[in-house]
Amino acid sequence: MSLVPAISTDQLTKCFGAHSAVDGVTLQVRPGEIFGFLGANGAGKTTTIMMLLGILPPSNGSIRILGQEMGERSLTLKTRIGVVSEHQSLYGEKTAEEYLAFFADLYAVPNARRRIGDLLAALDLEGRRGSRVKTFSRGMQQKLATARALLHSPELLVMDEPASGLDPYGISQIRELINEQKRQGRTVFLSSHLLSEIEQTADRVAIIARGRIVSEGSMADIRRELSPDARYVLEYEGDEGALRRALRRVGGLRRAEADGTKLVLSVASGEDARGEISRAVAAAGGVVLGLTRQEMSLEEAFLAVTEDGFGRMTETN
Amino acid sequence: MVGADARLRAGSAWRLARRELMGAVRSPSLYVMVTLGCLVAAVIVSSYLDYVADSGTVVLANPLRAPLLFALLATTAYVGLLSTAGLAGERERGTLEVLFYGPVDTTSYIVGKLLGHALTYLLAALAVVAFLALTAWLTGMPLSLKELVLVAASTVPAMSMIALGLALGALAGRIRPALALAALVIAVFIAIDVGSEIAVAQPSDTLLGSAAGLLASLAAAIVWVSPMGYLFWAEDALAVGTVGDVLIAVGAASAYGLALTRMAIAALRWRGVQRWRE
């Protein structure tokens, strides 16, 4: 497999007047990986993607796709990329087969009829190949757009909110299709605000907020970065006041909040603190009924980084 | 890589042109264009026949030249509007953006649209010629080879009109304002070009006749910017000039068409291909 990054951006910036929609985004997407690009609506995801595809010229910075510089006129490079955009803009009067045939012609796809048949079958659209696209549900249109993006077997697949409008079965089909691309050695750049989608499929993730990358790495990296405090949920029997005094001896304890009959403890991440907590409960004359360490979900991490994290980052800067 | 890009660009332009032509053949647009051209020609031929019926005789060197010229004028105006609506509509629906994900850039898109619409125009113009050939056979009016030359020459001003329509479609963004702008520009060109042609033939004591001088000055001023002006220029060269005059008229129209095509490419690059989202 090539060592050249599938996508490489350096200080990518897009300004609309005085407003910076994308502000100094530097990314490296490795070949063959599924890269999740996560952000709330308006965070700058689509603007970044439009620049990656040569649709929008950047105000500043550089873009290299599959080792080549990307621009509006990089036509050969564009034939190596497949795109599923958030807003499916299809030719409503054409049938599904005619639609795909037009794009197969545009991309000069060999054995186009067979390829179209295979893709329609893979996406459960074979029975509708002769139906006009305007009669399709949103989910079916999304699948058709995905088929279009895969027609020419692209090396890089860019997907902007691919699960938008799909039912759970459709989402599962698209997920399987994304994983299939990875198995075939292709790179997938998956942009979504659906955290579960990214969490289940992406090898690495970048989180964008207000046009800036606020976190990047594997799921574990992001959780670690965003969750410096480990959380322990303690169920106990005993005197709360005595317990709280005893817990002060636990190294790295930042907070202890009551949650009904439980205590939620925030401890600086590092060594497992369960032993120390158990000893503190015993020292206070209490009994541990249950003690669990909780991982932060990506959703919590996402919210943390897009709401608080941005402020934290700008302060640092 | 540059050579490969250029080959792809040419291939994409041709595929887009083919799509445009096939789309026109399968949709009402081509047939509306043919009907409009035939209708304009029929109205003028009918006025001649009425005149003959009333006065007994009319002396015209090429009686079917004017019906053909005005039919081509109407067809040119229509294809101009069609190109504006096509580009603005495609951007409004978001399908333009999807094309640009693939091997399409502003140059290949504009050239493809230009060729497709020009071929559509040529089909419509040939249908009008067929209609006039039928008229000639029925009425005994002569139809010379020069009329076919006029049709061929008119393709160049028609391409200028298409390029102008594409530029206006690229600039205006949405389909309704784009169409309104294109209709206004074309109406002004037609009013000045056709008005000056008609006014010259009127007695000077009539209102239109008295405005002939002003309209002729306006027409002379806009001859360089109105695609219709180039059509009249080619027709004049064909009627009273030499082959060289016809070639000069076509050459000037070609240079103007090229300038308008570059303008359309620049306009699309400037305004972008993305759907305008609220």
Protein topology:
The complex is a heterodimer of chains A (317) and B (278).
Chain A: E1 7-16, E2 19-29, E3 34-38, H1 45-52, E4 60-65, E5 68-69, H2 75-78, E6 81-84, H3 96-106, H4 112-122, H5 138-150, E7 156-160, H6 168-183, E8 187-192, H7 195-201, E9 204-209, E10 212-218, H8 219-226, E11 229-237, H9 240-247, E12 253-259, E13 262-268, H10 274-283, E14 287-294, H11 298-316
Parallel strand pairs in A: 3-8, 3-9, 6-7, 7-8
Antiparallel strand pairs in A: 1-2, 1-4, 4-5, 9-10, 11-13, 11-14, 12-13
Chain B: H1 2-26, H2 28-55, H3 65-93, H4 95-101, H5 106-139, H6 145-172, H7 175-200, H8 207-210, H9 212-222, H10 227-240, H11 243-271
Helix pairs in contact in B: 1-5, 2-3, 2-5, 3-5, 3-6, 3-7, 3-10, 5-6, 5-11, 6-7, 6-10, 6-11, 7-9, 10-11
Explained architecture:
The complex is a heterodimer of chains A (317) and B (278). With 317 residues, chain A is α/β, with parallel strands linked by helices. Chain A folds into 2 domains: 7-218, 3-Layer(aba) Sandwich (Rossmann fold); 228-294, Alpha-Beta Plaits (2-Layer Sandwich), CATH 3.30.70.100. Chain A contains 11 helices and 14 strands. Chain A has a 6-stranded mixed beta sheet, sandwiched between helices. The longest helix of chain A is centred in the C-terminal third of the chain and has 19 residues, at 298-316. Mean pLDDT of chain A is 85; it is low at 308-317. Chain B contains 11 helices and no strands. Chain B is mostly helical and 278 residues long. The radius of gyration of chain B is 20 Å and the shape is globular. Chains A and B meet through helix 2 and helix 3 of A and helix 1, helix 4 and helix 5 of B.
Please tell me what the overall shape of chain B is. Answer: globular
Q: In order across it, which strands form the biggest sheet of chain A?
A: 6-7-8-3-9-10
The residue-averaged pLDDT of chain A reads 85
Derived structural class of chain B = mainly alpha
The number of helical segments of chain A is 11
Counting structural domains of chain A, the number is 2
Which term fits the overall shape of chain A?
elongated
Order of helices and strands of chain A: EEEHEEHEHHHEHEHEEHEHEEHEH
What value does the Rg of chain A take, in angstroms? 24 Å
DSSP, total strands of chain A:
14
